[in-house]
Specification:
- It is a single chain.
- By secondary structure, this protein is mainly alpha-helical.
- Helices cover about 70% and strands about 0% of the residues.
- Helix 4 runs antiparallel to helix 6.
- The relative contact order is 0.12.
C-alpha cells in the first residue's frame, strides 16, 4: 500500500488527526507518547536533513500546541526528562537479559547523544 497523496513532509497532518482517536480510545498519555514522544522526535530528526521537513516544523508544532494544553505538554516533557533522558533504565526483573527490549539508542551511544541533544530543542519548540 502506498502513502497517501500528501507529500511525506506533510504527513504530520494525518498524525495529528490520528492523535484525536488515540486520545479518545487510549487516553491522554498514549496520545502524547504517539505525537510528541514518537512522531515529533522523528520529524525533528528528518528536519535536520531535509529542508521540506524543516519548513513544516513550525506548523506541526503549532498543531501540537493546539491539540494539547500548555500544562499537558509541560507535564509530558517533565515525564520524558525523568523517565527517558535523565534516568538510567530500570532492569525488568521478570525478563531475562536475553529477552529485555532496549531502546535502539541505548545500544548506540551516538543515537543516544543525538536524542539527548534533540530533547532541549523540542522542549523549546513546544514551550515558546
Amino acid at each position: 500500500m502506498s502513502l497517501p497523496s500528501l507529500a511525506l513532509h506533510k504527513i504530520w497532518m494525518e498524525q495529528c488527526a490520528a492523535t484525536e482517536n488515540i486520545r479518545q480510545r487510549f487516553g491522554l498519555e498514549n496520545a502524547l507518547d504517539y505525537l510528541i514522544g514518537e512522531k515529533l522526535f522523528s520529524f525533528v530528526t528528518a528536519s535536520e536533513q531535509h529542508p521540506d521537513f524543516a519548513a513544516e516544523l513550525p506548523a506541526f508544532v503549532a498543531e501540537i500546541r493546539r491539540l494539547f494544553t500548555a500544562a499537558q505538554i509541560h507535564e509530558y516533557l517533565l515525564y520524558l526528562e525523568r523517565t527517558k533522558f535523565l534516568a538510567p533504565p530500570e532492569p525488568d526483573l521478570e525478563m531475562g537479559d536475553d529477552e529485555a527490549e532496549e531502546e535502539p539508542w541505548l545500544e548506540n551511544p551516538t543515537l543516544g547523544a543525538e536524542e539527548l541533544l534533540r530533547f532541549p530543542r523540542i522542549r523549546q519548540l513546544l514551550q515558546q
